[in-house]
Amino acid sequence: MASNPSDLVDGFGRVHRDLRISVTDRCNFRCSYCMPAEGMEWLPREDLLSYEELARVARICVERFGFDGIRLTGGEPTVRAHLPVLIEKLSKLDVDLSLTTNGTSLPLLADQLVAAGLQRINISCDSLRADRFEQITRRDELPKVLAGIDAALAAGLGPVKLNVVVMRGVNDDEIVDFATFGRDKGISVRFIEFMPLDAQGEWTNEQVVTQDEIVATINSVYPLEVVAGRGSAPAERWRYLDRESGSAGSDVGVIASVTHSFCDSCDRVRLTAEGMLRHCLFATRELDLRAMLRADATDDELAAAITAEVGAKWAGHQINQVHFIRPARSMSQIGG
Ligand code: SAM
Ligand code: SF4
């Protein structure tokens, strides 16, 4: 084990400590902003990194570069077989270990995930109305997702957060309903500005409901004050004035990638399910770690390649500027 981790720094002085791992590109939903209804071509099984390979990259990031956070995502991470086996391997690295999921598998899996060492969870849900939920996800599964939220709470995952992508004319009339739901359940809702990553290329700026609009809408019903000290977290947070600070469901967050980009404080790198390291969700280049892993590269060689890739990281994604290039792959393929 390398005894002294050194910072993984890019050309803008940003230190990287957070790894997002996509464990699969597959999903049991077909959210309209993420995937087409039919015809998705999944990666062949042998192209996915094995759990041993994923855990090796994670270990190198922790040992060599002092990473302290790992989030598993996808696609839908829980559709990959034996996910608790991976969680158990990663939990040995002693980092803040979390998972982003659509929640449908949690009634079955939540206890096993916690037993394997999972600490925190984000569950995605874009509507609390069954008919609308089905329109967005193309699956009639709202009851299962709601049961998944309860299962996560009962299993002791904490905090449980709810991810809500807000789209104008689709679900922006549910902002207060979600705030109420979070307050009642004791969970933190994270509203996400809709980003230009949709597989079908349907994104337009007009569909983005901005952070300012979201906060004003909630504040008109539940008065809020901003929480200072965001650090490198993607969400800006607000506290409900009528709730005790730090209590369950006492805050709400907004991930404003479009109108208040947080690239300046970004500390993340991403590993796709087939082993490509990306220094940004919107990156136009990636490092083929799978080829290196399968050509028996040493830890030193892998660490050097990761250092060079992060060294080439750009200042930011520049959504809304003329030279912005949409990634060729959707969030489910890159890892959300
Ligand atoms: N399947 C899991 C889930 O839905 O939580 C994990 C992967 S999903 C790609 C991760 C998150 O990205 C979800 O909260 C999803 O709503 C969000 N997402 C996907 N496409 C997006 C987009 N174009 N803009 C904003 N958020 C997006
Ligand atoms: Fe699946 Fe998540 Fe994409 Fe929806 S957002 S299709 S649940 S990967």
From TrEMBL:
CDD domains: Radical_SAM, Twitch_MoaA. It comes from freshwater metagenome. InterPro entries: Aldolase_TIM, Elp3/MiaA/NifB-like_rSAM, MoaA, MoaA-like, MoaA_NifB_PqqE_Fe-S-bd_CS, MoaA_twitch, MoCo_biosynth_MoaA/MoaC, rSAM. Residues 11-224 form the Radical SAM core domain. Its cofactor is [4Fe-4S] cluster. Its EC number is 4.1.99.22. It catalyses: GTP + AH2 + S-adenosyl-L-methionine = (8S)-3',8-cyclo-7,8-dihydroguanosine 5'-triphosphate + 5'-deoxyadenosine + L-methionine + A + H(+). This is GTP 3',8-cyclase. GO terms for molecular function: 4 iron, 4 sulfur cluster binding; cyclic pyranopterin monophosphate synthase activity; GTP 3',8'-cyclase activity; GTP binding; metal ion binding. Keywords: 4Fe-4S, GTP-binding, Iron, Iron-sulfur, Lyase, Metal-binding, Molybdenum cofactor biosynthesis, Nucleotide-binding, S-adenosyl-L-methionine.
